Amino acid sequence: MKKILALISTLAVVAGFGSAIADPYPEGCVSCHVQTEGADMRLSTLLEMKGHARGANRTVEVPTGCNRCHAPDGEGVAPSTRTLVHSIHFEYPLENTFVTQYGGECTHCHAMDGATGKAVIKTGKRNWEYHVGE
What we know:
The protein is an alpha+beta fold and 134 residues long.
């Protein structure tokens, strides 16, 4: 419950002062999952390591494009994006990079729609090359 109240408070501040506060993660997944000199943490690389390269190449908008197979309602051919993302980012809180280095902040992935007052999922264009034939 404390986490939900913190999210609501943070989203209210962001919604109220959105133009005054720069969002360090405006595109959610692709804002964090980048390639640096030290490591390639792009989703395409992580998915390929798990044997899931085809889906990454057909996805343009992340994470909404993942819903093609990972339907939010759980009715897709694979587990829902919601279930996967939350379990991956919070499964091992004491060791998880999202928690230890990024504070496990909901606003890295979610934003507030000022018009409706609802939390929304941030999206962004993939940050990897499309490989023809895959």
